[in-house]
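So, can you check what follows?
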Amino acid sequence: MMDSQTNGLPFLKMHGLGNDFVVLDARKTESPMTADMARAIGHRYFGVGFDQLVVLTTSDGADVDIEFWNTDGSTAGACGNATRCVARLIMDETGKSELTLRTERGLLSAVEAGNGLVSVNMGMPQLDWQDVPLAHAVDLNALPIDGAPGAAGMGNPHCVFVVEDVESLDLPKLGPIYEHHALFPERTNVEFIQILDRNTIRMRVWERGGLLTLACGSGACASAVVAHRKGLTERKVTIHLDGGDLGIDWRDDGVWMTGPTQLVFSGMLSRDFLDTIK
């Protein structure tokens, strides 16, 4: 990963619907990632800036292994848009139209969907309170929180509120309140959804780690699951996010997410910058 001439660290910048990522390829060397490094790279003024950082490593039994890091230096078990971006990278690299990716969730399938789109099976939703996880047993369709949100795990926890007007909400104010709610021992992503019809949802999201993001793939999956379990939508929906649209289809083998990806640029973290990191 280290460039022999500059002794820097190469990276890619990608996004899925404005949900942006720094991607580091550690398949030929040991991953250099630490919490301090993730925080430094993630700073949008003193670093590169990202919603999630992605580290690729060699895999035994999959096309690639993927690690996710948040801007606060913590790790994440899932990131749908980033998984889709990685799938596009590996498809372009290998010429394959079908892949197997390994994340903390386990093995995930990805397929070329045509028209520049990629579909990823994000796995079955976690619908037991211990698996989300929650602090104690409750009705996952109506949590004991004002507004009776639903909960679902997609490799990371999600709290989904159904509201009348999602545009009017002050997410930077509301998001941290529910992210740190005592019912979620590992904190939670917070989605606010407005049901437009039985096949269409408008969603805005506050991501765990303190981010108002333009899109969240795992959050879109969780929102589709919660909306259907509440009897509000079909299992296949289009979700309008701030950054664009995702197609979500809750099938018998998992929740499939389909959407676009974009490689923005490649860059090099300088040795001077890396030397500032503890």
